Amino acid sequence: MSDNLASAENGGQALIATSWDQAHPPEHAIDGDDATFWVTTGMFPQELVVTLPASSAVARVMLRSVGIRRISIHACPTEQPGAYDTVLPETEIADGAGSRQSEVFTVKMEAVRHVKLVIHAGWDHFVAVNDIRLDGRKLD
Amino acid sequence: MVSALKLRSKVVVLGDSGVGKSAVTQMFHSNGQKFPKNYLMTIGVDFCMKPVPVQVADESRATVELFVFDTAGQDLFAEMAPHYWEGSASLILVYDITRAESFHNLAEWLERISRVVPVESMVSGCVVANKADLRERAEISREAGEAFAQRYGFAFFEASALEHSGIDAPFAHVAAATHARYTDSLAKLTAAVS
Ligand SMILES: Nc1nc2c(ncn2[C@@H]2O[C@H](COP(=O)(O)OP(=O)(O)OP(=O)(O)O)[C@@H](O)[C@H]2O)c(=O)[nH]1
Ligand SMILES: [Mg+2]
């Protein structure tokens, strides 16, 4: 049985981000609603950290976004965010001509507390992260 | 209370050596306090950040933090410069009104940066005719400068770093254009998912 561990319902939190517009806060990336989004407010790289309520194993990252060009994903096992391991090296994703991007990344995170998305470049100056799902299970 | 929106933008300053790119940038950054009287060639790049408030229609406030990269005009640094231009959203081209050559070279500067960042993808561009205090020695008319700017859809400004006149206008223009582009992008990002 696997769950979307990023969702607020399951205790996921998005508290650390490099951009903050009160109309499009980081929480919008994990609220399970595709119509809401976290927006970057200028320059790259941009970062967003999703914090899980407990140590978990994550097998897939599902991302819905608009305008992202290059992304990498990193995982941190400790309760206090510290050193991150790269689980997805910098990867280019297709433009979609300004429409929605929908990506699934198979990753290996065995015991993770924080998942960091780094957006290295955009197809436009400002990009949106509509939804992040972390598919996995809590460790006992 | 409505908290202020903070945007960020990278701006590059380009043009021949000695036209006053560093003087313009430093006078902007220091609010007119630091005019570099003696020429000190920029080695590679000088960098500064300054928040610029922008006028917003409603009662909310917005600030654009301009990350200004004042790059070297000396040929010596021609290979390094493109590295510093990467990721720039706006450009400010500077020429010296008393040196026609510095004006004629603007097209070459544009071509060089286009190889790194497509100019049509940029948020804004400005042409700054500097050293307006030396008007009696001008080799390039205001009209010629304006015509060049217009050809590329850039805004034109006359300035004197020495007299601290016309210095803030190009940066205010970049900040306003950045905010306008953000508003536009938000509308598109919203439309993409509805
Ligand atoms: N009269 C006058 N002199 C100026 C003005 N702006 C700059 N200068 C002088 O022009 C010289 C060159 O200025 P810089 O700002 O260092 O030139 P730059 O374009 O940064 O040159 P590089 O770093 O080599 O690319 C300095 O001696 C400045 O004092 C101005 O508005 N009026
Ligand atoms: Mg200089």
CATH class of chain B: Alpha Beta
Helix % of chain A is: under 10%
Number of strands of chain B: 6
Name the shape of chain A in a single word. Answer: globular
Q: What would you say this structure looks like, in words?
A:
The complex is a heterodimer of chains A (140) and B (194). Chain A has strands spanning 3-4, 13-17, 38-39, 46-66, 68-76, 85-92, 101-122, 128-138. With 140 residues, chain A is mainly β. Chain A has one domain (3-138): Sandwich (Jelly Rolls), CATH 2.60.120.260. In chain A, strand 5 (68-76) and strand 6 (85-92) form a beta hairpin. Chain A is globular, with a radius of gyration of 14 Å. Chain A starts with a strand and ends with a strand. In chain A, 44% of the residues are buried. Chain B is an alpha/beta fold. Chain B has a six-stranded mixed beta sheet. In chain B, strand 5 (124-130), helix 5 (142-151) and strand 6 (155-158) form a beta-alpha-beta unit. The relative contact order of chain B is 0.19. The interface between A and B is medium-sized, with 24 and 24 residues. Bound molecules: guanosine-5'-triphosphate (GTP) and magnesium ion. Magnesium ion binds at residues 21-22, 42, 70 of chain B.
